[in-house]
Write a structure and sequence with these properties.
- By secondary structure, the protein is of the alpha/beta class.
- It has a single domain (about 5-240), classed as Rossmann fold, CATH 3.40.50.300.
- It has 11 helices and 5 strands.
- A 5-stranded parallel sheet has the order 2-3-1-4-5, sandwiched between helices.
- Helix 4 (about 70-80) runs antiparallel to helix 7.
- The chain is globular.
- The two termini are about 20 Å apart.
- About 35% of the residues are buried.
């Protein structure tokens, strides 16, 4: 894959509780130690920013997306509405989240370096699919995904459902949709189905020639996180190439070989 204007995006995808934030942050640290210029847009917003600043930033970016890209914003809102969400509140929340992620991604187009999203547009697609009731949802998700052409490396993080549920039971903040929904088995069935829809969307985009690379790994436990992060960092470096973009200078990245399968 190639970097456009010295910029590349890595997005972590998976169910809540599989370790996306922990792994993405550790991978970012490893890449920085190896000389890469790295930014963590969503991790910084969710984990390093005060609540009021986070709210103001989201309001500003969503407003900018609606004003400067109105056709895309309207199209996105109509597409999300067509998935037949459970409530009007869900439609509004999912649309706002989609526009926020779209705006964050647009900012990476003009900034050099590697931009790591612990949750990005693909996880936004998962959220849309999670509570969608339309049989046409898979097509709509593909339609939404095609709005962005940013080259991206996708880290697909999977884990045993029992382990994921146990991790969520230990969390106190209840931020994920699965935690807010409760322990109902139906929610987990819908969560798995939505993830399968995201995987199918990725496959469709790849078949259509989109510049996307997928690295699939399985998180087997906290004791393996550091080793897993190092394997992911090595896979990303192979894909992005050997010329690391450094602060103040746009980087050039040669085309790397396709992984062809899981990194673990």
């Amino acid at each position: 894959m190639t970097m456009q204007r010295g910029s590349a995006v890595i997005e972590f995808v998976g169910l809540a509780g599989v370790g996306k934030s922990t792994l993405s942050h550790r991978v970012a640290e490893i890449l920085q130690q190896r000389g890469w210029q790295v930014e963590q847009p969503t991790y910084s917003v969710d984990h390093e920013m005060r609540a009021w600043r986070r709210l103001l930033l989201k309001l500003r970016l969503v407003t900018a997306e609606a004003i400067f890209h109105p056709a895309c914003a309207v199209h996105s809102a109509k597409a999300i509405l067509a998935t037949r969400q459970a409530s009007a509140a869900d439609v509004i929340r999912l649309t706002v989240n989609w526009l926020f992620m779209s705006s964050l991604l647009r900012k990476t187009d003009h900034r050099t370096g590697v931009h790591i999203f612990d949750e990005g547009l693909l996880n936004a697609l998962w959220s849309i699919g999670f509570s969608a009731r339309s049989a046409d949802t898979p097509r709509i998700l593909g339609e939404l995904a095609r709005q962005r052409s940013t080259p991206v490396v996708v880290a697909l993080i999977e884990a045993d459902i029992a382990a994921v549920r146990a991790r969520l039971d230990l969390r106190k903040n209840g931020q994920s949709r699965l935690e807010r929904t409760g322990p109902a088995d139906d929610a987990w069935d819908r969560a798995r189905q939505a993830l399968q829809q995201v995987k199918a969307t990725l496959q469709t985009l790849t078949d259509e020639g989109a510049d996307i690379e997928v690295v699939a790994v399985r998180n087997r436990g906290s004791e393996d996180l550091d080793a897993l992060a190092n394997r992911l960092a090595a896979a990303f470096e192979e894909l992005l190439g050997s010329a690391a973009p450094r602060p103040g200078a746009p980087g050039r990245v040669e085309r790397g070989s396709r992984t062809g399968g899981p990194a673990s």
